[in-house]
Amino acid sequence: MRTFHLLVSAVLVTASLVGEVTAQQSSVRQRSSERTARASWRPTRTQVVSPSRQQPADQSRNKTNRVLLVDHHQDPTQHAEVIPTPTAEPQSVIHTMPGPPIMDGQITVSPAFDGSCDALPGDCGCGDALCVGDCGTCSSGDCGLGGCSTCGELCSDEAWRPCITLCIPQDGWVSFEYLAWYQDGMTLPPLVTTSIDPSVSQADAGVLGRPTTSVLFGDDEVLTDTFKGGRLQYGVWLDRAHTWGVGGEYFEFSSVSTGFSGTSEGNPILARPFFNTQTGLEDSELVAFPDVITGSVAASAKTELVGGGVNFRYLTCCNEGFSKWFFCGCPEPFCSRSESLFGYRYLQLDEGVTVTEDLTSALVAAPGGFLIQDSFQTRNQFNGFDFGWKYRRTRGCWTYDSMFRMGIGITRQTATLAGQTTVNDPSLDPATQTYQGGLLTQTSNIGSYSQDQFAVVPEFRFNLGYQATDHWRATVGYTFIYWSNVVRPGDHISRDLNTDFLPPAADPFTGSQRPAFAWNTTDYWVQGVSIGAEYRW
């Protein structure tokens, strides 16, 4: 009996050991099968072209991949181990861009756009989605802040950072342009003449209306050539979506002048013409005539223009989509924005005409000399309210800007007339004496005069720009400005002269008070081209 119990115990121990070994082998075989399945599993990669082509979410969840375990024979009556296929998260795909084939295991990222129309590819073909409009609308120009409102703009996360201490706004612009403009010419009366016949009589020398008389300076428009300057523009945006902004500009032209100067011992003849109110005839003052007088004369005219202002800009509307280049080619994305402008405008026009004579008598019986000067200066200062409209269209790297604005305000007009004659006569005591008045400026019209006049200043401007980098843009453009009410020096030179005014004045004085001052207003325009660069941050 004891032997029987020992035999049963040995059998039970052996069975237990065999069970544990079998369980361990089964566990090892199961882990090996799982590793083999994971090693042989390959995810299925599909490239989504548009959201409309994706499979419904409920169908993708029900799909499974059946993986056959490596090194095992599958029993047809048994089901293979099932590993569910991971469901991809919903994707926002913009477009499928051409590129090299995707390698196994490679992770690809959809192209990112920086929020401006300039970021969209401009070299696509007519079969691509961007050209034919498969995507529906242009997704550019929003900086992620609200659609096309920031078309062609460079945006930051914070356009305006409120702070206790002084801080700089994050979004802004500054530009400088070289200006080559033309202006409305200044009309001058005849100021310097000559006689082409050296044998002409002294009474007819340089007198207007005589067949031998020729005008050397005046009797025409002057200052019609190009005058050069620069324009600075600057501003900042007050919000991230670039809806409100404030900016300013300043432009200035260097002083431009033209003139005539001549010196003669008598031949050629030089003279200054005028209308003699004592005789009612044309007459002249001799500057150089044979055996009578020698001398020199210099006449000049100058002009200088500056302007500036400050305005607020408000986005009124914007647009984006696809269009063709000048009625041909395949459609490409564009965006545009329109803004209203209102603010303050300032213009100043300074001009002047000066005539100077230096005369020496050639008569032995009447020695001496004269230094004579006439000066006519004008200034126009416009101050007014400015309002207008600005439009920008961006396509690829190219931008087109146009602007129309109207200034309404007051022009402060000032005219200053001055003259002086210095006489050097040995018979006088003292020999050198100075008198008020020249030739066409006398006590009857010398003085400073001013008045205020209502004026309008419309301006039209357009620029074509090329975006060279994210921050820099090259521009070329055209500007036209009209000023409705100004005074100019040539219109305030009176050729009427009562010769009793000539220094030293006759005593007693008789005749009319001529020359006299009278306001004579006119209009003015300036136009020209510009080339420059703009920096945005």
* Helix count, DSSP H or I runs of 4 or more residues: 3
How many strand units? 21
Radius of gyration: 45 Å
Structural class designation? mainly beta
Report the average pLDDT across residues: 79
Major sheet details: 10 strands, antiparallel, barrel
> Looking at the structure, what is the overall shape?
elongated
Measured distance between first and last alpha carbons: 104 Å
Q: What percent strand?
A: over 45%
Helix proportion of residues, in percent? under 10%
Order of helices and strands: HHEEHEEEEEEEEEEEEEEEEEEE
Low-pLDDT sequence parts: 43-83, 90-100, 102-146
Q: What's the arrangement of strands in the largest beta sheet? A: 3-8-9-13-14-15-16-18-19-21
Q: Describe it for me?
A:
The chain is mostly beta strands. Helix content is 9%, strand content 48%. The protein has helices at 2-40, 57-62, 129-132, and strands spanning 64-66, 82-84, 172-183, 186-188, 192-195, 213-217, 220-222, 227-237, 244-253, 256-264, 270-276, 281-288, 293-325, 328-361, 369-395, 398-424, 432-436, 447-467, 472-487, 496-497, 521-536. It has a ten-stranded antiparallel barrel with strand order 3-8-9-13-14-15-16-18-19-21. A three-stranded mixed beta sheet has the order 12-11-20, with no helix packed on it. It has a two-stranded antiparallel sheet with strand order 1-2. β16 (398-424) and β17 (432-436) form a beta hairpin. It is elongated, with a radius of gyration of 45 Å.
